[in-house]
Design a protein that fits this description.
Elements: E1 19-22, E2 36-41, H1 48-57, E3 61-66, H2 68-74, E4 85-88, E5 91-94, H3 96-106, H4 114-142, H5 149-177, H6 181-184, H7 194-209, H8 218-228, H9 234-239
Parallel strand pairs: 2-3
Antiparallel strand pairs: 1-3, 2-4, 4-5
Helix pairs in contact: 1-3, 1-7, 4-5, 4-7, 7-8
């Protein structure tokens, strides 16, 4: 597997109160006050599922991205204690999976029945566990300088200790869960769901940080390509901020 030398987050284009209104609906009227405000760091992470759900549903929202410096200050405020955070109608919902489930139910992409919903939930939760287990490897990349043999050695050590074992544990499970992807391109028999967005976003990140790990996982690749080709997501994919993680 290749190592990739990169910072954890790219804050070069994130200034104080960096936010944008994302409007991917059919209406040509630009919303003055969007109903939803989604706050997270300048990364895809666990917020990308919810961004994609809102874009897919054509719902305008404020994409509020905090720099690392902002987050260090604001995380002391209980309101910002857990990110992502969704604000709407004087209510606040925290945690990426909880927000995504709420929005998926609200906009009809949570699965057609309890069984499909459980299948979608299981995939999202596996990806959550996968991401958490991969965190030590990702954090090791933060400390690497490409000209330092010592740090390169430590990165390779981290890859062997954290990266490869985690990939070998979780990718086969997700690949098996994605077998329907070769039939019509999505995880569930009824069609696209928020779990497909979770797969697509995480697969995109792995393509950048551990590209060779994906060579034998074609079903996951099919799901990612089908999601990224969906007409309802094209506008969002063009205007979203580009980040590695």
């Amino acid at each position: 597997m290749d190592l990739l030398y990169l910072p954890y987050l790219d804050d070069t284009d994130v200034t104080e109160d960096s936010q944008m209104i994302v409007h991917c609906g059919l209406s040509k009227t630009f919303p003055v006050n969007p109903k939803f405000k989604l706050t997270y760091l300048n990364a895809k992470g666990s917020a990308e599922m919810s961004r994609m759900i809102l874009a897919f549903a054509g719902i305008p929202f404020i994409d509020n991205r905090l720099s690392i410096i902002e987050w260090e200050v604001k995380k002391l405020d209980p309101k910002y204690g857990i990110l992502p955070m969704l604000e709407f109608e004087d209510q606040v919902v925290c945690h990426g999976a909880s927000i995504a489930r709420f929005l998926a139910k609200k906009y009809g992409i949570y699965g057609k029945d309890p069984l499909e919903q459980a299948l979608a939930d299981s995939v999202v939760d596996i990806i959550k566990d996968f991401s958490y287990s991969l965190k030590p490897y990702v954090e090791s990349l933060m400390k690497i300088h490409i000209d330092s043999p010592r740090l390169q050695y430590l990165a390779k050590e981290s890859l062997l200790k954290f990266g490869i074992p985690v990939v070998e544990k979780y990718l086969p499970i997700l690949e098996e869960k994605s077998t329907n992807g070769n039939l019509h391109g999505f995880l569930l028999q009824s069609g696209i769901s928020f779990a497909d967005f979770a797969i697509a976003s995480f697969y995109e990140t792995l393509q950048l940080i551990l590209p060779k790990s994906l060579l034998n996982y074609n079903n996951l690749g099919v799901v990612k390509e089908q999601v990224f080709a969906h007409p309802k997501l094209q506008q969002y994919l063009k205007i979203r901020k580009r980040t590695v993680l």
